[in-house]
Description:
Layout: H1 2-12, H2 16-38, H3 41-58, H4 68-86, H5 107-126, H6 129-139, H7 145-152, H8 156-180
Amino acid sequence: MIEDKWLIWRCKQGNRAAFQRIYEKYEGDLRTLAANLLYDKTMAEDVVHDVFISLLGIVDTFELRSSLAGYLKTCIVNRSRDVRRIKKPKTVLADDAGQAPSDSHEPVQRIMETELSRKLDAAMNRLPYEQKEAIVLYLHGQMKFKTIAKLQNVSIKTAHTRYRAGLDGLRSMLNSELREWNL
Length: 183
């Protein structure tokens, strides 16, 4: 947080390298978060760039009161919601959403992982958006339920319930398919 405050101060002084450091520090995590919310790599990149352009536009008056990462994640969530209202995102594989590919060198293992990833993506797309968002924000955004509740404008209990209901829904959708694979 101290580094972030210093970087914001440097940006206010017109230091481009400070803004570049902020971008490099957070861009990857924000892109992964946006891709997991939108399931569209291109839209996710656009959302991240929009958020950084917005930050650049307000940096002169911006006051960092808490975590810069939290602020940027909140911006990503809000911008992703705006994009979802305008365009329906297409489904992409989890690897395209920014997750690291497997280190496994066995082709059969890779095929199984790819197929499981596709099934998980399809199941995530069938969840109600509020549940999917709670799961993504908790697991990928590493946000606490208090923060998720604030973003979703619900109680902490409701945010937690959405997360648990989403996991239960995924488990239910995937159980029969996982039994077929003997996993």
